[in-house]
Every structure is written in C-alpha cells, then in structure tokens.
Amino acid sequence: MPHEIERILAAAAQRTWLIDEAKADEIVNLLALRASNSAGDWGGEDNEPLYAAEPVAGRRGPVHVLRLEGTVFPRGGMMTRMSGGASLEQFGKAFDAAAQDQNAQAIVIGIDSPGGVVDLVAETAEKIYGARRADRPIIAVADTLAASAAYWLASAADEIVVTPSGSVGSIGVYGMHDDLSEALKKQGITRTLIKSGPRKAEGAVGPLDEAALKHRQAGADYTYDMFVKAVSRNRGVPVATVRADPEKSETHFGGGRAYQARDAIRLGMADRIDTFEATLARAAKGGRPRRASTARARLALL
After folding, report:
1. pTM of the entire structure?
2. Which of 197-236 are b and which e, b meaning 16 or more Cβ less than 10 Å from the residue's Cβ?
C-alpha cells in the first residue's frame, strides 16, 4: 500500500487542480503520512461515499437530496476512499436520476468540498445548468464549503445558499511542480529517463525549462478561462467581475479567495444565508429561489 500512495503523490504533482491551496497541502500531508504507515488502513470498498439520500416529500412532489462532500475526483477509486473524496462520475449518475424525475419539486445539493481535480468538473457543471427548469429549482447549499471546483458546480444551480459559518469562492487554478533531482541525489539515486518525443516527460525529475513552464501555464490559463466564463454566465455577472483583483476593484468575485457567507452575498457570489435543513424545508414547501441582487438589497438594510 505505501508504494501505491507514493505513486499517487507523484501523479498529483503533475495534475491541474481546482482546489483551495490549504486543503491541497492537507491532502498531500495525509497521503504522505499514510505512505509511511505500513498498515495503510484506507477503508476498502465499503468506504464508498453516498451521493443521494431519501427524497423528502414536498407539496407537489419529491424533493431530491444530493450530497457532494470531500475533494472531487473524476472517478471513484482508492484515492477517493483514502482522502474522503467524491467521484463526479458517481455524483453525476445520482444527479441524472434526480433530474429525470418529472414529478420532482426541487433538487437540493449539499456541498462540503474544497474543490479537486479539474477532470469532469466542466461537464458536471453543464449537466446541472442544463437541468434547470422554471418549475423545479436546483439549490446548491455550501454546507459549509464550496470552493474552487465545488463553487463552479454550485454556480450552475438556480440558487446558492451558504450556511452561517460557510464559505464560497476560490475561483482559480492551482498546480505545482517538484524538482526532485536534488532529493534523489541525496538519497544516492541517479534516475535515467528513457523516452521518445522531444517534449515527453519534461520536468519529470529536474526543473522545468521556460518552454515547459509556458506550456503548463497555458493549460492553467485555458482551464481558468473556462471557469471564469462559466461562473459569469451562471451567476449573470460580467466576466470582468469574476476576473477582478479584490485589491484593485470593489466589484469582484474574490480573485481566487474564498469568502464567508455575509461577504459572499454582498459580492453576489451567493444568494442566501441559511442552514441546509432550513433550505430543504423551504424547498419542500415550494419556496422559490432568490438571486443575489435581492439578497444584497436585503443585506444592505441590516
């Protein structure tokens, strides 16, 4: 098991992440700790998360209750079970089942996630956005965190609710590269790469040259551009607002920072402060979504 975790850690350094940086460090440290523990208790197949709870009875039909908790990955497996993560593939299946129920009164998605790997995030968000119907609201609840990839997903809903102690945002792309050459040298290891292709395995052991860094930056910029445009459309705000630096503009969406409930509503990043339970009860009674413009007006009176 330790060698499998080490392989995952190496792979993680090569991926593009939509994740809160502090959580990324926490995950890496957790996996490193487990790599040093030969017991390697990772929960096994029985530790798979559940994405759908029993529907709640509403006035006009069932209210479907979904959960997305932990670091998001495209598919399930050892990584999701070890890190308490979530599979977007499995969540997507649960969402499809809820969205296909023509009698559904509402869909409420409880989210507690720092974000995760970029793969399937855009596709899952489009699935949520495409399922919007005037007679069946989709409500995302940051209970208590919807950051980065998780915020991208939440923004696709009709309404974003934040719990009183919750936070949303962290709109940005995160990546890293470890130059392992000196570490291997200290261990007395000389690694020889056998490869074909002029740019294959660039930076696999040593530093990134200018061209390799430029290529990786282009990939991060591409994902960030998709992220920004999706949030702009989903939340009905200009692209410039989503891109803005909070240190240079009063109108912004955090510039990569996450914000707590009150500030998130003031900025238009969320629509309402409430608990998950209260939101579910409101959906069951047939309450309608509230957009941020109304929420900001109410907040200004407090």
Report:
1. 0.86
2. eeeeebbebeebeeeeeeebeeebeebbebbbebbbebbe
Region 80-95: what's the mean pLDDT? 86
Determine, yes or no, domain membership for 83: yes
Number of domains into which the chain is organized:
1
pLDDT (tens digit, 9 = 90+) per residue, 67-77? 999 999 998 76
Q: How many residues does the structure list for the chain?
A: 302
Q: Which pLDDT tens digit goes with each residue over 10-43?
A: 555 556 778 776 666 666 665 555 555 544 454 5
Q: Which domain does 76 fall in, by range?
A: 2-175+215-300
In this structure, is residue 201 part of a structural domain?
Answer: no
Distances in whole angstroms, Cα of residue 255 to Cα of each of 148, 170, 185, 273: 11, 7, 39, 22
Distances (CA, A) of 72 to 117, 128, 203: 6, 16, 26
Tell me whether residue 103 is in a domain: yes
> For the domain that residue 284 is a member of, what is the CATH number?
3.90.226.10
State the average pLDDT over residues 163-185: 92
Count, in order, helices (H) and strands (E) of the chain. 12, 12
Would you say residue 206 lies in a domain? no
pLDDT in tens, 219-232: 999 999 999 999 99
User: How much is the average pLDDT of 159-177?
Assistant: 95
Name the 3-class secondary structure at 135: coil
